[in-house]
Design a protein that fits this description.
single chain, alpha/beta, eleven-stranded mixed β-sheet, six-stranded mixed β-sheet, 24 helices
Length: 866
């Protein structure tokens, strides 16, 4: 072989370098047939290719600029911090489109909130006005000459495009910027991918890191690094002839809300389509079988003990659908023993059983719907195993006002937690009454309990909202009849938060739990799913739907939603609308329940613990009963400053044409009397000393660091009764004296005759007597700790209202606060003349006197008032 000259070698190297540079700068797609050589496809709606740790999607030109539905679903959870496997808690479904721009593919979330059917000019205005979101732009890496096989990079999905960063930080409750989690792209990669006929799944295994994580994140070995696995589920948008149904505020369906600009001759632009499944009955004009039933699969993680209970709950809905003219609407199947069957296939709606460390027991429904029409295309339910156990429940679960008085109480996660507390009380109360002592009785109780939960969650899968006025449909006598509750349930709807239906021993007893769909459930399914004769468009249905919805005034068909139980911010006003209430007389129900609790509480010391038990059983039983009372106390407070609301339309049967009516002053006085008796008085917290000395917990080794779910000792070994009492009292005071409540109460005099309903001065007078009435006791020598704490708290509240009133506090309330402080100061001065006062009571009264003096004598610089 001849040697090449040095100049020729240099020329060759230069040409190779230029060629390499040219190839590096050449971004033109590779030839499809060459690119796929040696690779194995995953064939589905989109073909998925994997190569060197990367994921690629293959589309045909027909799939570009077409609507698909995309949703990010957690595959792994945070062990109880809201994010749970299979539940789209932070990320709703949305439309995604893939469009070709030269040699790139843009992934876009179009804005589907604004519509203009059959109005081309309005559609052009919408396109010009409302921006869409470009998720990412990805290069085309290969294509064929005909443009039918186009492969593009899916790597943009590795970014946090669904903003789970905020979801994680919000669920854990992190406010410190140094402790917040953020996506670590270096520790993020693709997980498994799956391709099905109607959807593709791309898993991204994302690591979220924090330099200073909170100690509460104890579900991973090193909380500085949390791996959250997400499935990006891209599904075919339905094209099945579905006709949307326009919502009505008198009927409880989740709405898919859009603004419509095609017609200006309307009162409002909002168009609300209900969320519902397209069962497509074979002949909608008569009772016929569903050609597109909702098929629910029972996961093989559900314990065998509960398997049939879950199945029976789901199938109950067929009774309502049959009345609406649809047969076989719901079908239930077991997860097949087939390795090719996959729960990620969007054609499979799965009921899952989870195990989490600190969730407290919850149940949630998750749905995917078409954001253009509200059509449900996928459903599922997750049930946490802690629902069925009493472990990890302590007094804080029952008596912590933050659990009862915050926005979190409005979420569906509160339902499972609340049901669990109801069951805990039931087990204690029924055991005390000798009605839950055998394995058969315990099993029946548990099965009915789970049945009620699955009935509720599966109702969401039909598109149904909560209905928190459903408990008002029945009387106490009806609920004490087993024959009645077997047929109608303990409330009119499974969409209520129905409590344990329990009555004092010797009283007739109906079913403990909601074990059947109620009258409202039959009605609401008919309204949402029954065929409307002659209607061809959603608007054609409206006259008939309005007529069907006109029955709101009938208690068995009334509906009230989540916003109507927003009492923590004084938005809600109708005391009939509540969580965990029963009968058409909430006050009578709570009175009977708190009396029942008092009887059970008096026997706990003698019943717990039994031989061989630790003293935790006594502490748990005490918490069970105390929590039941606390729930009723908050319920009773709803009557203060309340008004009844009727959601009927003008002309509806049984409606007098006035939506607001007064809560009688007598009932409000009755409600405050219950607060005085069961919350504010010393006697409400007067427990047996021998019982209090038993309320300890078991200690465990503390030599090694442990996560909270393993062992989380309390600061005190005993039960902090005074702390619990003050926390609950403060929660109620904050609720009934918040500015918006005081505003509404002050305004009642403009709507109702004098003395028809309570006044602002009534609230201050009743609370003054409850808090400070004992100061006027002749020969006073002592005031108990519970009442001293209440007096100090309320006096400071009055002082704050005088000196630094919260924004929105009415002037009348400020004036009354000053007057009550003067009255209290005068009463204290007389009481201090008694030579019988013990040292702590005298010191307490002197402190109250000083507080009143400092407030009343304070000089303030007033602004212009403008």
């Amino acid at each position: 072989m001849r040697r090449l000259s040095s100049s020729l070698i240099l020329a060759l190297l230069a040409s190779l370098s230029l060629a390499a540079t040219a190839r590096a700068d050449d971004n033109t797609p590779a030839d499809y047939s060459k690119w796929i050589a040696g690779k194995t496809p995953q064939l589905g709606m989109f073909t998925i290719w994997r190569d060197g740790g990367k994921v690629y999607l293959e589309a045909s030109s027909a799939q570009f600029d077409k609507d698909f539905i995309e949703q990010a679903l957690p595959v792994s959870g945070l062990g109880g911090w809201d994010i749970t496997p299979g539940n789209p808690y932070f990320d709703v479904a949305r439309i995604i489109r893939f469009s070709r721009e030269d040699d790139k593919i843009s992934m876009t979330w179009p804005n589907t909130s604004f519509i203009a059917p059959a109005n081309a000019a309005a559609r052009r205005a919408i396109e010009a006005t409302f921006a869409s979101s470009v998720v990412a732009v990805a290069p085309i890496v290969a294509e064929d000459a005909a443009g039918q096989h186009i492969v593009f990079d899916a790597s943009p999905l590795l970014a946090d495009i669904s903003d789970f960063t905020d979801g994680i930080n919000g669920s854990i409750g992190i406010s410190d910027p140094q402790a917040k989690y953020g996506l670590d792209s270096d520790r993020t990669y693709f997980g498994p991918t799956k391709a099905f006929a109607d959807n593709d799944i791309i898993e991204v295994d994302q690591t979220f890191a924090s330099a200073q994580p909170p100690s509460s994140v104890d579900n991973v070995p090193d909380p500085r690094s949390i791996q959250l696995k997400l499935d990006y589920n891209i599904a075919a948008a339905p094209d099945d002839g579905y006709v949307p149904r326009i919502a009505d505020e008198r009927v409880g369906y989740y709405p898919n809300i859009q603004l419509q600009y095609g017609n200006d001759a309307v009162d409002g632009r909002q168009v609300r389509y209900i969320m519902r499944w397209n069962f497509a009955p074979a002949d909608p004009t008569k009772t016929s079988a569903a050609t597109h039933p909702m098929v629910l699969y029972l996961s093989n993680t559900i314990p065998a003990r509960y398997h049939e209970t879950v199945r029976n709950a789901l199938l109950q809905w067929n009774k309502a659908f049959a009345r609406a003219g649809i047969l076989g609407a719901i079908q239930v199947k077991d997860q097949p023993d087939d390795p090719s069957w996959d729960p990620d296939d969007i054609r499979h709606n799965v009921v899952r059983w989870l195990t989490e460390s600190n969730s407290g027991g919850f149940a949630q429904a998750g749905s995917v719907w078409d954001p253009r029409t509200g059509e449900l295309i996928h459903t599922g339910i997750v049930l946490d195993s802690d629902l069925m156990t009493g472990s990890f429940v302590d007094w804080r679960d029952f008596a912590d006002p933050a659990r009862l008085d915050g926005a979190q109480a409005r979420t569906e996660t509160a339902y499972g937690h609340g049901m669990r507390l109801q069951a805990a009380f039931g087990r204690t109360a029924l055991a005390e009454m000798g009605l839950l002592g055998t394995p058969a009785q315990e099993n029946a109780f548990d099965q009915q309990f789970l049945l009620s939960i699955v009935l509720h969650e599966s109702g969401h899968e039909m598109g149904l909202q909560h209905n928190f006025i459903g408990s008002e449909a029945y009387t106490a006598k009806e609920l004490q009849s087993k024959a009645f509750t077997d047929r109608y349930g303990v409330t009119s709807s499974v969409m209520e938060y129905s409590p344990l239906n329990i009555w004092p021993k010797g009283t007739p007893q109906g079913d403990y739990w909601q074990t059947t769909i109620g009258p409202y459930d039959y009605y609401v399914i008919h309204w949402g799913y029954a065929h409307v004769p002659g209607a061809k468009t959603p608007q054609d249905e409206v006259p008939t739907l309005k007529r069907w919805a006109s029955v709101w005034s009938n208690p068995r068909y009334s509906f009230a939603m989540d916003e109507d139980v927003s009492y923590f911010d004084a938005h809600a006003i109708d005391p009939r609308v509540s969580h965990w209430d029963l009968t058409n007389d909430n006050l009578g129900w709570c009175d009977s329940q708190m009396q029942l609790s008092a009887k059970i509480m008096s026997s706990i010391a003698s019943r717990y613990p039994t031989s061989g038990q630790a003293f935790d059983s006594a502490r748990t039983a005490f918490g069970d009963v105390l929590g039941h009372d606390t729930t009723c106390i908050y319920m009773v407070a709803h009557y203060i400053g309340g008004e009844y609301v009727n959601r009927s339309h003008v002309g509806d049967p049984g409606f007098n044409g006035i939506p607001l009516s007064d809560v009688r002053r007598l009932d409000e006085q009755r409600a405050f009397g219950l607060l005085d008796r069961f919350l504010f008085s010393d006697k409400a917290w007067d427990f047996s000393p021998s019982l209090l000395r038993k309320l300890v917990y078991t200690e465990w080794v503390t030599d090694f660091p442990q996560p909270a779910w393993a062992y989380a000792p309390q600061p005190r070994h005993d039960m902090p009764i005074a702390d619990i009492a003050l926390g609950t009292q403060t929660g109620i005071l904050n609720r009934i004296f918040q500015p918006l409540m005081l505003e509404r109460l002050d305004d009642l005099s403009m709507k109702y005759p004098a003395s028809a309903t309570m006044s602002l001065s009534d609230l201050f007078a009743w609370m003054q007597q409850s808090a400070f009435g004992d100061i006027r006791t002749k020969g006073l020598n002592t005031i108990g700790e519970i009442h001293r704490n209440l007096q100090q708290t309320y006096a400071r509240m009055l002082s704050q209202m005088v000196l630094h009133p919260a924004p929105g506090t009415p002037y009348d309330a400020q004036s009354l606060a000053r007057a009550e402080l003067k009255s209290m100061q005068s009463d204290v001065a007389r009481a201090l003349k008694s030579p019988k006062l013990d040292a702590v009571t005298r010191a307490h009264l002197e402190a109250l006197s000083d507080l009143a003096s400092q407030t009343l004598e304070a000089r303030q610089v007033l602004g212009s008032g403008m």
